[in-house]
Design goal:
heterodimer, A: about 500 residues, mainly alpha, 6-stranded mixed beta sheet, about 60% helix, elongated, B: about 230 residues, mainly beta, 7-stranded antiparallel beta sheet, 9 strands
Chain lengths: ~500, ~230
Amino acid sequence: MHTDEAVHAIKFGALLEENKYRYDPHEYHGPTLNYFTLIPALSVSPRKLAEIDERTLRIVPVFFGMFLIVGLFLLKNGLSRSVMFFAGLFLAVSPAMVFYSRYYIQEMLLVSFSFGTIVSGYRYVKSRNPLWAVFAGIFLGLMHATKESCIIAFGAILLALFLTGTLQNRQKGKPFHFGFKINAWHILIFTTTACVISVLFYSSFFTHPRGILDSFIAYKYYLQRAGQNSWHMHPWFYYFKLLIGSKHSAHPFWNELLIVILSGIGLTVALRRKQHPQMDHSLLRFIAFYTVILALIYSIIPYKTPWSMLGFYHGMILLAALGATSLLAIKMKNILRSFVFLFLVLGVSNLLVQSYLSNFKYEADPSNPYVYAHTSRDIFRVVESIEEIATIHPDGKNMLIEVICPADDYWPLPWYLRSFPNTGWWNKVNFSQPAAQVIIASPSVESELLKKLYEWPPPGERSLYVPLFRFPTELRPQVEIRGYIAKDLMDLYVQSHSN
Amino acid sequence: MIFIASTIFATALAFTGPETSQPKSEKLVPIEIELPKPMFIGTPQNIGVERLEKPLGKPRPPFMAPVGTKNVALGKPVASTDEEPIIGEIAMITDGDKEGIDGSFVELGPFEQHITIDLGAKYEIYAIVMWHYHKQARVYFDVVVQVADDPDFITNVKVLFNNDHDNSLGLGVGNDLHYVETAEGKLIDAKGIQARYVRLYSNGNNSNDLNHWIETEVYGRPVKKDTQ
């Protein structure tokens, strides 16, 4: 589990066990991820976080990742079958899409809700049925209740609508309008639904009204962070560098070049004058503008994490599907068509293989471009060691464990040690209480810890401690942790295993 | 008689047991230990670099060198592939200022760059310590350290460190590990090699494609005439 996933999982634990969720405007985004996780957790009894595993959590982003494919059918009047087929195929094999559909963070939910808003909005425009206005409102409200960066998608949708309307009407020589009549009642239904959904989630279903206000105050903190957090400052081309290819010797050459190239073709096709048979030209243009605007905004913002690109990358995939369809629709000799077909087959196969490798072989390897500050596999050795000690400890999993890491940098251990209720989490050595028999600590506190173990207790009560882990152990690359265990307990463990 | 007395004493002791040292009225109560809950944190820093050196977890111990060894690069002239740095001046690389703050580092252009220090004479070099940029935990790519007898690196060229794993600089595949920049600098064992010129390559870092230098120290002593 990535640190971010573990943080969300522990926050979900409070909702599951205490029915408590409080929106924090400083960090950790909106409540939809937590509340939607209650659905797969319904089958878990007793309602304890210790009974939940990664699958229960990650099924939520998986579901919304799949919605992006299934939802394509709702655009059957605007996109051709071929475009829908390629879009579904690319979404299913894209390493970025598959990787982050298995990540317990909000991003895939935001992308799905943005897509839901666009699809419902499009269906409303075409049918004038107020029910689609309600759906659009629900999705818009869910976007707001998912992540603060929804404001970027809102802006991109509005600007894309404006540009699409301008371009359509300029070519027809008409004055600007959005291309559809605005019904005031339907707008009211749409905005009211969106507000109700947002208020429901941010107020923790009317148990914490302050959350509604906090959902707006949050922008103050996020705007500050966008330009200040040097850890996540990256150049403007960062996302494209991830997609075009990354250099790592002795590892696969990771790239999503097929989608990048085809999306370029799709963009050109969408913006040209020529109409497409079986497709709604204004929808294609809207997708093109929406994607370009989102990509521009996310590239300009210095704060970047790889999953933030999913919003515009989803648009790129839709454009790539249009590009692939357009390529195959070009009148050409059979031999040339065979080359195009082969290019697509090889490209999709490459994505499929990379998708498998990035999810099942290099899922924590820094060479994988989507692995970002990920937890080291050493975490499993840490948990295994502690669980083995628990088997011989008189208190079992109720044994005391002391975790000491400056700046609270012990994540994702709270997730992995969730079945050890008597674990204390410290950011400095605490001299006011006796030392636990099992201690996990950052090397930087080792000298203070030695004082606590060997200077603080009175003579005759200074238990000898020995290392718990046999090898150097990292939480993440360059974040080492060390384990210490009272020698009495280690002797007990050794004896029990030698018998 | 002694046996009977000992048996009675031992039996009495067994019945009283360790409780004899504890007043009967004093009860033992469980002590409530306050256990703080975990505090949430944001997305941690990413160091997405393969073949990365494990952290030492403690300050690097001082290295041993023959008497008379000192930083012979201090104040010596430096040449660079980027003659007009984006930030700072090339001379700052040997000015003795190893601080990580703004105003202490030189920012060279993107991609492959190198600097060359002319020590002014041939020295017996025991160690090279270099600082690229340590305000942030960064990894610089394709770090190669060479020494030679001439400024064009034709005569007696030796490679002391090379972590260019895919030979992107064309100087040969290196097997040294990537490392994270720290205030301690990166210490390279030069094994007493004799040279006048020191050249240091880099090729961007894990945060951006630019190259930075704070300081380079070359620890050596003048070459004795009979060993030249």
